[in-house]
Amino acid sequence: MASEHRCPSCHSDIIKRVPRESNWQRFLSSWGLYPFSCRNCRKRFYAYDYGVGFLALFLFFWLLSAGALGLGAAWFWGQYQPGQARALKEAPPPAPKAVAVAAKPDPPGPDKIAISLREQRLKEDTARLKVMFAALIKEDTKKQRKIDQQARRLAQAEARNQALKAQMDKSALQGKRRLLAEIPFGAGRVKPGPKGVKTLELAAAIIRKHPDAVVLVGGHADRSPLSPHNVRKYGDNTGLSLSRAMSVYGQLKKLGVDEARMVVLAYGASALEDTALGAKPAAGSRRVSVVLKLPAPE
């Protein structure tokens, strides 16, 4: 399109304003200098184009400059009035004020630095010891809680045994005993294996045929030391044997044996025998015996 601007190269007036591609071109356009392109020779150049936006921006900056000049003049006039300036000339100069200079502290010597480092090290050691002490107390609390739980289980089993023993008279105590099954266990194990479960199924079938008999479930263990995990869990070999007996007790209960007829005993390592299918003495001691105690004949 024809314009009042001309190309500086070919002097053609067929030009058009092109879009601004950079921040620098946008800055120049804020002052009225826009990019143009000649359609004849394709040359790009800048030319002034005063539009409504430029006039508005120019008016804004003019008003801003006028306001700043007015505020500066008002401040200058308020600070330096003629009467106030004359009074300042006649007034005597102010007396110099005495300024107290604080004495600078002496730099810390090597002794003070060593003492401060020692105090800091002591604070760090104290904080570390507090954390370690809190962790030890927490661990001891957990161990004591497990020991208390094991003691409660032993006390409950002992109370049940005493109650059942008190119910049996002398004639029942003098009755015949029949060994139904001996369930072997691995080292540190408390649950019977698949063969042990099948053996308990056969024993439960025999127990159901004698409703008046008492079932003695005795847990045994060897004298081998327990692992740290089992020590935290069971305490000692007596607790391990009790856990084995309680596991067999629960299995018999699932198989339909009345829990009121069963007596759970924990022998620990006090009754070492080699009766578990010809196994070694240590392995034979890790067992649970199921004994059927028949009532004495009247």
Quick structural summary:
With 298 residues, this protein is of the alpha+beta class.
The sequence of SSEs as H and E is: EHEEHHHHEHEHHEHE
Distance between the termini: 133 Å
CATH topology group of the largest domain: 60s Ribosomal Protein L30, Chain: A
> Which consecutive residue ranges, at least 5 long each, have pLDDT under 50?
169-174, 274-281
Mean pLDDT: 77
Tell me the major beta sheet.
4 strands, mixed
Question: Taking Cα atoms only, what radius of gyration do you get, to the nearest Å?
Answer: 52 Å
Q: Please give the CATH architecture of the largest domain.
A: 2-Layer Sandwich
Question: Total number of β-strand segments?
Answer: 7
What percent of residues adopt helix (DSSP H or I)? 40-55%
Strand order of the largest sheet: 4-7-5-6
Describe it.
The protein is built from nine helices and seven strands; from the N terminus they run E-H-E-E-H-H-H-H-E-H-E-H-H-E-H-E. With 298 residues, it is of the alpha+beta class. The protein has two domains: 15-78, no CATH class; 149-293, 2-Layer Sandwich (60s Ribosomal Protein L30, Chain: A). A four-stranded mixed beta sheet has the order 4-7-5-6. It is elongated and about 135 Å long. It starts with 14 loop residues before the first strand and ends in a 5-residue tail after the last strand. Residues 169-174 and 274-281 have low confidence and may be disordered.
Descriptive tags:
298 residues; alpha+beta; 60s Ribosomal Protein L30, Chain: A; 2 domains; four-stranded mixed β-sheet; three-stranded antiparallel β-sheet; 7 strands
